[in-house]
Structure formats: structure tokens, C-alpha cells
């Protein structure tokens, strides 16, 4: 008995760095953020005024709305593209699949300031392609402005797709060839197979991927900051300027917005989960 | 009048011939089995009939219609897979109803209900595949195929993944349902015992060819070549040159001889007088005894060769290892190949 207890203590001791890390860098800041959000600007008085300020301010509400819209839009678009792209990936030989996955893996890490900078170099006002195409006389980019809503969405989708492909690809291995064969023998077409069997089977992974993409976009900061600076009103940019700016330092208000950001992510996950359970009754 | 005709079907992958000029005809309501070792082409033939694989040459006809170039969904055949291939996201009811929904037929509910009764799955309608045992899953797969009232039912080793007991009971049930619906059935298996129990007709396949066809008893008692003899009946097979020496008879013709292990008799040396009119007597000793339950299998070594001898496991006499015996080989039972 004693031996087992000792072993357990050793095992727990090995977990210690991990537990310390989680408490120090994840739970700690979260608790501090929630606590902070209930203080007035002076940091002494306990109040819910910070939340009231946010909900009364058109400016902040617009930031939340913008963030929600860009996150939803880029997540939905990327998931749809990734579902198709991951499927076509599975159609290649194993060798090519491995190579394409390697590229996907690399590009999925390509985000933040380097990504924005690359876009600026290639498609900015004085970008390589912008200038090249205007010299050649193609005006495809004449109406395109990288530092706008469209530009921002383009960049968001760009960094979301590889991640989505990486996350959805493995679940295609779970689709058995014989389900397709059985479906076709029972009179089902390819599209009815995907509609009734393929997509529902993939759904948990699609939904999970969507949640991750949504959170990824909601929290994306560096990419947006490098591209549009404070020209565009996004939740993550507002939080940053409230907690780290030289002009209006209001960490309590920033915390309250951070709490709202977290709440929307949790809400999105909960909603996804509910929707999935409705369609995949076998998983209940 | 043949209901299913497979006419000179040939198929190959790259340099390998998988189906070599196969011709088979089946009557309506017949239960036919394609029997062979893995890689003999039996599953490929079944999949070609289903339309899941194309053929390089030849024709396949069902009920007078040439289906060789039709898609699987146009062929009106049902298929049951070894791995069941049930749709995991659908309940038992929805799995069975899927085909009917695809065809947009009426009274789906009553048809599904009827077939659920037939395969004895009442009460499981709302269960999901992962909540069922292997045997139950295979019943669902069978019901899903049968509810479409296919012209031909194709079964690709449907019982191979199940344990022995459930397998035996499903064999019986499958046979009962097949007779009840009078549905033409093609069954693929590598298990000769299963083939014997279930079939009206067996097609023994080897290297992409049908090497012998006939009723189970025909195939069992008169194998046409060494392969069938060894595969289907665990026969003793000897080169004729060797056999002539064993029985000391130079006038025997043929190239090989096959003898079933259960027609041989063992007599202790010096015990009885031997009937050497009808039999050949060969002296040997018991090298090994093994038991498969109801059968005792003796390995008897003789001067020139060795024999397998099968006895029913009676309570009576058993030969000990090392005992000296005469093997009585009935002359009539020697099959010259």
C-alpha cells in the first residue's frame, strides 16, 4: 500500500510544473481579469459600472459587433473551404498527401505580424502585385484596399484555412468506403451519401473546428494591429489600447471587455455543442 | 431458365488476373456459395456483380437484363458486408429505411416494421449501431438489404467477424429467411463447413477460376482435383507413384489419388482377420492423436507415407500413441484424380 502511495506522490510531483504553469499563466490571469472588471477606474471601488459603460457606448458595442461578424464570417468561410480542401487532399496518393500536409502545417503557423507584413508587401497600396498588375494594365486590384474590411477578412481567412484543414483532415479517415458502397447499393447518390451520412459523421469535427476558428479570430490581435492599426474598431484592438496604450489607460474597462470576449467564445462553443447533439442523436 | 448469368467474366489489376473467364448460372431462389481461400477472386466476383468493381470482359445478367454496365444503384441487388457497414449516425430504423427513402417509396414504416420482425430485432428500432452486438448489427445490415426486395442478395463473408455460437445460429436464421423469401443468394466464404451447411450449390474458386461446382455432397465426395480435395475435405492425397508402392499394386492408373480420412479404418495388429477383398491393408503405427471435440484424428505413419484417419469420438476404443495398426483402405473410396 505504502509503495503505491509513494508512487502516486512522485507522479503528482511530476505534474507540479504543469499545474504551476496552468495556475500562474491561465487561471491566475483569468481570475485577476474577472476581479479587475468589477472595479472602478480608481481600482478601489467595487462596481459593475465598467460593463454598463460598455453596453452604453456605441463605440464599444460596435467593436464587439465587428469582432463577432469578422470571426463568424471568417470561421464559416474557412470551415467550408477546409471541408472541401481536406476531402480533396484525401484523394491524392499518400506521398503527396504527406507533402501537402507539411505545407499546410507550415502555413498554419504563418500569422500575426509577419503575415500582415507579407500581405502589405504583396497587396498593399505599393505592393508588388498591386504595382505589377497596374503596370500590365489589369485593374483587378484597382478597387481593392488591403487596409479595409475586405482586406482584413482576406487575411483572417488566409490564416484560418490551413488550421481548419489540419483539424478536419483526420476525421476523413473515419469515413469508411463501405458506407459509400452500401449507400450506392441502396439507391443513394453521392450527394445523398454526403448529406445523410458523410457530413453528419464529420459534424463533431466540423463543429469543433468552427469553435476553434471562431475563438482564434475573436482573439486575433497582432495580425489586425499590424494591418489596420487602430483604424478599425475590433474588440481585441480596443482591449489592447485600454490596457497598454499611452493615451487612455483603463485596465478595469479592458478587463470587463476581456470577460465579454471570453463569454462570447464560451457561448459560441455551447451553442455549437447543442446544435451538434440535435443532429447527431447517437452521440447523446 | 437461369436467373443470374455470369458469362465469361474476366478482370485483372495491372499484371495480375483476378477473375479468369468465369461463367456461372444460377436458378431463381438458389443459395449459391463462392468458396475459396483469400485472394482467390471470390470477393471480387461478388463486388463485380454488385457493380462496385468493373469487369474487363464478359457479361453479367440478372433476370434477363444485362447489368454489366449499370451503376450499383440501378442493379437492384442487395449486399451485406463483413464489417456490417451500418451508418453510425442513424438508428436501426433509419438504417433500414435509408434505401426506401432514397427510392421515395410509400408505406416505409410498415415495410421496415415487417422486416424488423423477420430478423427478430423488435424493440431495437431506436438503438444506434454502437449499442448493438455484432450479431445484432449484422441482422440490421441484412434487414437493410432485404427491405429493398432485391433481385439478388449478395453476402460478403457476413458471419466471419462473429464468434462461433452466434455464427451457427445466424447461419440457420439466414437460411430460414432466404427460403422464406425465396431470394436468390450469393454467399462468399472461406469456411468450407459454412459453405456445406448453407448452400444449394457450391462454386469452389482458386486463382480466379471456378475449379468445381455442384451440390455440397457432390463437391465433398467427388473432388475433381487435388486443390478441392485438400481444401474442402482434408483429404489424404498421394502421388500415384507413391500410392502404388503403398498398396503394392502396379496396375493403378492416374496421377494422384485422394482418400477421405473418415472412410479409413484402423485395426490393431494381430486382432482381427482383415477383409482384404474390398480393402487394402497397410501396416503402420499411431504417431499422433488429436481431438477436435467430436472427432478423433489419428496420424498414422506407414513405411512409405502417412495417413490422416478420422474417427467419431465414441466412448469405446481409442488407439494409444505408438500402437501398431493396420489401416484398411476401402478400394471403392479411393478417388483417382
Automatic annotation (TrEMBL), chain A:
Origin superkingdom: Bacteria
Residue span, ABC transmembrane type-1 domain: 64-272
Localization, UniProt: Cell membrane
Major location category of this protein: membrane
Family statement drawn from the similarity comment of this UniProt entry: Belongs to the binding-protein-dependent transport system permease family. CysTW subfamily.
Bilayer disposition of the protein: Multi-pass membrane protein
InterPro entries: MetI-like, MetI-like_sf
Residues annotated as transmembrane: 9-32, 68-89, 110-134, 146-172, 193-215, 253-271
Protein name: ABC transporter permease subunit
PANTHER family xrefs: INNER MEMBRANE ABC TRANSPORTER PERMEASE PROTEIN YDCU-RELATED (PTHR42929:SF1), INNER MEMBRANE ABC TRANSPORTER PERMEASE PROTEIN YDCU-RELATED-RELATED (PTHR42929)
Pfam families recorded: BPD_transp_1 (PF00528)
Keywords: Cell membrane, Membrane, Transmembrane, Transmembrane helix, Transport
Automatic annotation (TrEMBL), chain B:
Alphabetized SMART domains for the sequence: AAA
Coiled coil: none
InterPro entries attached to this UniProt entry: AAA+_ATPase (IPR003593), ABC_SmlMolc_Importer (IPR050093), ABC_transporter-like_ATP-bd (IPR003439), ABC_transporter-like_CS (IPR017871), P-loop_NTPase (IPR027417), Transp-assoc_OB_typ2 (IPR013611)
Keyword Lyase assigned: no
Molecular function, one GO term: ATP binding
Domain ABC transporter: residue ranges: 4-232
SUPFAM superfamilies: P-loop containing nucleoside triphosphate hydrolases (SSF52540)
Keyword Transport: yes
Gene3D superfamilies reported in the protein's UniProt record: 2.40.50.100, P-loop containing nucleotide triphosphate hydrolases
Key words of the record: ATP-binding, Nucleotide-binding, Transport
PANTHER family linked: SPERMIDINE/PUTRESCINE IMPORT ATP-BINDING PROTEIN POTA, SPERMIDINE_PUTRESCINE IMPORT ATP-BINDING PROTEIN POTA
Name of the protein this chain belongs to: ABC transporter ATP-binding protein
Source species: Fictibacillus barbaricus
Lineage: Bacteria, Bacillati, Bacillota, Bacilli, Bacillales
Amino acid at each position: 500500500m505504502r509503495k503505491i502511495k509513494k508512487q502516486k506522490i512522485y507522479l503528482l510531483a511530476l505534474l507540479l510544473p504543469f499545474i504551476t504553469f496552468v495556475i500562474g499563466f491561465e487561471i491566475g490571469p483569468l481570475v485577476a481579469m474577472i476581479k479587475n472588471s468589477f472595479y472602478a477606474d480608481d481600482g478601489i471601488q467595487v462596481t459593475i459600472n465598467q460593463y454598463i459603460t460598455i453596453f452604453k457606448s456605441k463605440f464599444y458595442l460596435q467593436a464587439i459587433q465587428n469582432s463577432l461578424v469578422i470571426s463568424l464570417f471568417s470561421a464559416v468561410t474557412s470551415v467550408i473551404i477546409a471541408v472541401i480542401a481536406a476531402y480533396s487532399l484525401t484523394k491524392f496518393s499518400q506521398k503527396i498527401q504527406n507533402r501537402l500536409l507539411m505545407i499546410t502545417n507550415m502555413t498554419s503557423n504563418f500569422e500575426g505580424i509577419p503575415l500582415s507584413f507579407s500581405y502589405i508587401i504583396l497587396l498593399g497600396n505599393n505592393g508588388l502585385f498591386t504595382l505589377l498588375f497596374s503596370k500590365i494594365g489589369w485593374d483587378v486590384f484597382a478597387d481593392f484596399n488591403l487596409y479595409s474590411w475586405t482586406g482584413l477578412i482576406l487575411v483572417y481567412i488566409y490564416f484560418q484555412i490551413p488550421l481548419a484543414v489540419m483539424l478536419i483532415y483526420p476525421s476523413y479517415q473515419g469515413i469508411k468506403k463501405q458506407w459509400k458502397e452500401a449507400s450506392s447499393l441502396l439507391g443513394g447518390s453521392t450527394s445523398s451519401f454526403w448529406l445523410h451520412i458523410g457530413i453528419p459523421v464529420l459534424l463533431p469535427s466540423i463543429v469543433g473546428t468552427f469553435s476553434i476558428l471562431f475563438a482564434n479570430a475573436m482573439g486575433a490581435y497582432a495580425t489586425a494591429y499590424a494591418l489596420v492599426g487602430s483604424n478599425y474598431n475590433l474588440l481585441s484592438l480596443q482591449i489592447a489600447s485600454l490596457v497598454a496604450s499611452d493615451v487612455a489607460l483603463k485596465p478595469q474597462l479592458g478587463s470587463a471587455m476581456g470577460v465579454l470576449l471570453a463569454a462570447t467564445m464560451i457561448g459560441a462553443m455551447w451553442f455549437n455543442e447543442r446544435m451538434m447533439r440535435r443532429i447527431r442523436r447517437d452521440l447523446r | 431458365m437461369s436467373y443470374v448469368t455470369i458469362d465469361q467474366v474476366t478482370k485483372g489489376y495491372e499484371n495480375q488476373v483476378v477473375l479468369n473467364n468465369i461463367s456461372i448460372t444460377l436458378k431463381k431462389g438458389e443459395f449459391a456459395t463462392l468458396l475459396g481461400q483469400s485472394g482467390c477472386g471470390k470477393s471480387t466476383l461478388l463486388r463485380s456483380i454488385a457493380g462496385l468493381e468493373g469487369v474487363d470482359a464478359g457479361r453479367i445478367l440478372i433476370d434477363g437484363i444485362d447489368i454489366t454496365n449499370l451503376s450499383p444503384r440501378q442493379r437492384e441487388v442487395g449486399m451485406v458486408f463483413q464489417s456490417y457497414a451500418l451508418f453510425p449516425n442513424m438508428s436501426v430504423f433509419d438504417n433500414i429505411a435509408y434505401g426506401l427513402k432514397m427510392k421515395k417509396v410509400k408505406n416505409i414504416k410498415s415495410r421496415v416494421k415487417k422486416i424488423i420482425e423477420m430478423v427478430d430485432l423488435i424493440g431495437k428500432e431506436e438503438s444506434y449501431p454502437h449499442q448493438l452486438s455484432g450479431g445484432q448489427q449484422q441482422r440490421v445490415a441484412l434487414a437493410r438489404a432485404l427491405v429493398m426486395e432485391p433481385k439478388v442478395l449478395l453476402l460478403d463473408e457476413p458471419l466471419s467477424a462473429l464468434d462461433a455460437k452466434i455464427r451457427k445460429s445466424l447461419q440457420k436464421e439466414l437460411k430460414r429467411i432466404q427460403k422464406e423469401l425465396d431470394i436468390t443468394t450469393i454467399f462468399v466464404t472461406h469456411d468450407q463447413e459454412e459453405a456445406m451447411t448453407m448452400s444449394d450449390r457450391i462454386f469452389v474458386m482458386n486463382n480466379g477460376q471456378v475449379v468445381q461446382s455442384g451440390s455440397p455432397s457432390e463437391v465433398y465426395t467427388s473432388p475433381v482435383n487435388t486443390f478441392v480435395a485438400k481444401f474442402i475435405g482434408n483429404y489424404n492425397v498421394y502421388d500415384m507413384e507413391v500410392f502404388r508402392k503403398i498398396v503394392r499394386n502396379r496396375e493403378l492408373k492416374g496421377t494422384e489419388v485422394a482418400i477421405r480420412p473418415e472412410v479409413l479404418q484402423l485395426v490393431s495388429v494381430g486382432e482381427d482377420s482383415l477383409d482384404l477383398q474390398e480393402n487394402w491393408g497397410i501396416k503402420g503405427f499411431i504417431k499422433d492423436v488429436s481431438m477436435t471435440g467430436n472427432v478423433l484424428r489419428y496420424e498414422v505413419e506407414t513405411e512409405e507415407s502417412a495417413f490422416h484417419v478420422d474417427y467419431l469420438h465414441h466412448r469405446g476404443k481409442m488407439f494409444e500413441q505408438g500402437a501398431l495398426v493396420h489401416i484398411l483402405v476401402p478400394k471403392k473410396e479411393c478417388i483417382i484424380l
